[in-house]
DNA sequence: AAAATATTCGCCAGAAATGGGGAGGAGAAG
DNA sequence: CTTCTCCTCCCCATTTCTGGCGAATATTTT
């Protein structure tokens, strides 16, 4: 397995297009010896990318119904850091149960193991392996392969990001220190009066920073600027 | 190395306090055979945690001077997904060069390899190994150990998160679908008129959602609510 | 079946943010 | 040494947001 994964990662790194990457992702079924493999990148709602071994109908339906909003796998992984077995997710709630029914009907395996991956600029993706092994067997299997799955997820996501934007580094607008300060205060819930006091500057000066940050970020208003700065990692709150 | 790392990860997972974790992190010097090892978690500006093998004086100084804002290692990793060699970072700019000088004087190795790690709720951390090997040797060394470093970073961060908040899962407020819609529109830069039109509801109804979301999130104002929702992963823009 | 949420609608007045002007000094990069 | 970005301060008119009042139906959970 170790050797196969090493070889596999090399083939992933040699991919040059999303089509090739998609092929590599499907190859993973053999490497990991599971029924299904999924790489699902979720950025803006509605701007998702998925490469998987499910039916195309399921993908279409899933996206059309915005299932990412109720899918406990997505929702659970959004709140977690470590890979998680599907059985440990929260399947209570009508929407989740209904979704599960439809998913199983569509051929999605009842066992699954998903790893959340996060990149810069708020990027989020899921890497999943799914199968129909029994509970006991699946548990042993996943325990034995956590690290391999983590590494596969990492390198696939790296490649996806690289293909998408040409390099590892995102070239985003740069904000001056004071602009960062200003946006940070606002993101913490301060209004302009409080923020300017915290920074020991006049309220007018604060506004200049907010203004310039907004224009640098191409934001329509302050809230938009905060949202952009946060997702771009320019401001940490 | 493979075997040693496996054993090491088990010892990391058995740590029950930050002190123990700190011990495990220092042990990594032997596992990886490098001079310095650093785990640096950056959440709010000013709420950082670091566990490392540098001098306590350097840590104090670093935090006091807010060096995370100019440190090219931090800034570079904030924009990257894949581990990066320090030499490939952007050291131009007076602030960065001055910082480098002070760092080297403080005993920080001139070679370094850092991996960015991101968790839920906007959590961000860096795992770094640093040494004084020559360029050529260091390059070969890091190439050979990327995967080990990635895994070490992952499990250390997992443990740090677990110790910090008791479990892998963050238990955050849940928003209703419409509340998410409302905040999403605002985060995209729409004002209330545009947002309510997009959602085909009255402006007043929109306000109700914003209000309830704000109270659920314990936010002081709309901007604060957006910021919280974004960093908590409740809203994806 | 009862309780709790979620979704939807309206009006008004005061508070806050925005847009568009203008201007000087300090420091860094080329 | 010139150019550029950064930091700092000020006014006014208009738009937008916030807070506080109240209320009905539908869906989900307990």
UniProtKB/TrEMBL annotation, chains A, B:
Give the SMART domains listed for this entry.
HTH_LUXR
Its BP terms in the Gene Ontology are: regulation of DNA-templated transcription
The chain positions of domain HTH luxR-type read 168-233
Q: Which UniProt keywords apply?
A: DNA-binding, Transcription, Transcription regulation
State the Gene Ontology terms under molecular function: DNA binding
List the CDD domains: LuxR_C_like (cd06170)
Q: Does the keyword Transcription regulation apply?
A: yes
Q: Has keyword Transcription?
A: yes
List the PANTHER family hit by this protein, alphabetically. DNA-BINDING TRANSCRIPTIONAL ACTIVATOR DEVR_DOSR
Q: What is the designated name of this protein?
A: Transcriptional activator protein raiR
